[in-house]
Amino acid sequence: SYVKRARGISVASYVRATSYSLGYVIHADALAMNVSVASFKHSGSTEVVAPSAESITEAVTTSGLQFGNNGDDASRLTVDITPVTTNARAWPFTTYSYVILRTGMNGTSASDRLRSGATCENVAATVAFWQWFLESDQAKNIASQYGFVPL
């Protein structure tokens, strides 16, 4: 039978409580719920790979993160990192999350560039947060603690 769940934790909970069930969740949710995970063997390989920080990193570094490697214009900031079939140590079901930020509207005045109620201080704090998030070892360590793989 088929049972749909809306969120990863609820999928993992259902799989954990239901014998012979199968589900798909992000690595962090599987770790948080301590559920068994499947392994994968690439065609032509004798190695078996399971999801882990190392195998996910292998998938990303094998494909590369060059914007536009999927045929899109590089200005769209899209990257194709799946499926990885050339590296037996790479987890083939790997993807990434987007962060979408408003960059402003046409015009040069603050009112043309800021949403209603925003200030330049809000924008500066947002930029500082994302710089910390993307560049700091502390943010990478926090992500790793929760089962995410920093790129």
Write a brief caption for the model.
The protein has 151 residues and is mainly α. It has six helices and no strands.
Task: Write up this protein.
- This protein has 151 residues and is mainly α.
- It folds into three domains: 1-37, no CATH class; 41-96, no CATH class; 98-151, no CATH class.
- Helix content is 38%, strand content 0%.
- The chain has helices spanning 8-17, 27-33, 53-63, 110-113, 120-135, 137-145.
- Helix 1 (8-17) packs across helix 2 and helix 5 (120-135) packs across helix 6 (137-145).
- The longest helix has 16 residues, at 120-135.
- The two termini are 37 Å apart.
- 13% of the residues are buried.
- The model has no long low-confidence stretch (mean pLDDT 83).
- This is PBP domain-containing protein.
